[in-house]
């Protein structure tokens, strides 16, 4: 699907606030609500828009730690880990990467004791390194047109 300037303006609005109405988006980009609705539907059908999420505050839900954990898998342990990681509630995001480590995970934990027990589950699959997240510098930055 070819994304024209109007589609990018609509995507910008949705990335800023996906809950705003099509009428509000239409006012911002200069077209009717039905035109916005049609373009959004086409972008969903084309796989450009892949979903809508609610962002929650982990701290207000009782979580005290967010961490980045890398894993350098032991020989023969990567494939089993790739299946096991899908079962961990702590893992928000998991990436298979190039370099010395095989995996990068963003995890959410109740406290330090929870972190310790989670790492204990991981070390059977490989060597881990953990960094505690102090704050977000960039969060949910919008995707812009390729130049």
What structural keywords apply?
147 residues, alpha+beta, 4-stranded antiparallel β-sheet
Distance between the termini: 17 Å
Oligomer: single chain
Task: Give the helix tally.
Answer: 5
The percent range for strand residues is 15-25%
Mean pLDDT: 96
Question: How much helix is in the residues?
Answer: 25-40%
Order of helices and strands: HHHEHEEHE
Strands side by side in the biggest sheet: 2-3-1-4
Radius of gyration: 20 Å
> How many strand segments?
4
Principal-axis shape equals: elongated
Given the helix and strand composition, which structural class is it? alpha+beta
Which sheet architecture does the biggest sheet show? 4 strands, antiparallel
Low-confidence parts, pLDDT < 50 over ≥5 residues?
none
Short description:
By secondary structure, this protein is an alpha+beta fold.
Description:
Pfam families: AsnC_trans_reg, HTH_24. This is Lrp/AsnC family transcriptional regulator. The chain has 147 residues and is α+β, with helices and mostly antiparallel strands. 35% of the residues lie in helices and 20% in strands. It has 5 helices and 4 strands; from the N terminus they run αααβαββαβ. It has a 4-stranded antiparallel sheet. A hairpin with a 6-residue loop joins strand 2 and strand 3. The longest helix has 13 residues. The protein is elongated and about 55 Å long.
Question: Can you lay out the helices and strands and say which pair or pack?
Answer:
Elements: H1 5-16, H2 22-29, H3 33-45, E1 65-73, H4 78-84, E2 91-96, E3 103-109, H5 112-122, E4 126-132
Antiparallel strand pairs: 1-3, 1-4, 2-3
């Amino acid at each position: 699907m070819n994304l024209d300037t109007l589609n990018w303006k609509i995507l910008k609005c949705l990335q800023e606030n996906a809950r705003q109405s099509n009428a509000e988006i239409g006012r911002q980009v200069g077209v009717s609500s039905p035109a916005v609705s049609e373009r959004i539907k086409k972008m969903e059908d084309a796989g450009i828009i892949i979903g809508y999420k609610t962002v929650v505050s982990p701290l207000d839900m009782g979580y005290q730690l967010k961490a980045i954990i890398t894993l350098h898998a032991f020989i023969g342990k990567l494939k089993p880990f790739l299946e096991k990681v899908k079962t961990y509630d702590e893992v928000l995001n998991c990436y298979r990467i190039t370099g010395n480590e095989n995996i990068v995970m963003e995890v959410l934990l109740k406290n330090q004791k929870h972190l310790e027990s989670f790492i204990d589950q991981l070390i059977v699959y490989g060597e881990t390194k953990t960094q505690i997240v102090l704050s977000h510098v960039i969060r949910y930055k919008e995707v812009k047109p390729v130049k």
